[in-house]
């Protein structure tokens, strides 16, 4: 007769056990599960970090919930007033890695909504105040409207989004 060659992992499993293809599939599934678990853990950590920052800045939102879906943050809860709601939206939106905020928050005490301004290269709070209020010296209004996210009126950066409240 002679010597015949066969593929050892094909054919009937008379000896029990698994083929190398089945073993490889199991290993790949285990690695995929570990990867998904790591992604879920990072997502939970990032969501908790955003919530912690909101609380650390004394932005009180009842039943605050933050969920990240890719580069979109979904926020819900009940803010005391419109300013708090807008500050939470800006805090979350101005977070690295967040491209969009899905605001599902409610407001306990309704107020007029502020305008938002995206800082451009060369902007200062004075230039922004001149644009919206016609008076550069009204920049403290914008600074105060964006506290506690802004710590210094000179520390704004291109791409940052700011609240521009109506003058009272």
TrEMBL record:
Keywords: Coiled coil, Cytoplasm. Residues 18-45 form a coiled coil. The keyword Coiled coil applies. It is found in: Cytoplasm. Pfam families: BON (PF04972), LysM (PF01476). Residues 115-164 form the LysM domain. CDD domains: LysM. SUPFAM superfamilies: LysM domain. One of its GO terms (cellular component) is cytoplasm. Residues 36-109 form the BON domain. PROSITE patterns: BON, LYSM. This is Potassium binding protein Kbp. The lineage of its organism: Bacteria, Pseudomonadati, Bacteroidota, Flavobacteriia, Flavobacteriales.
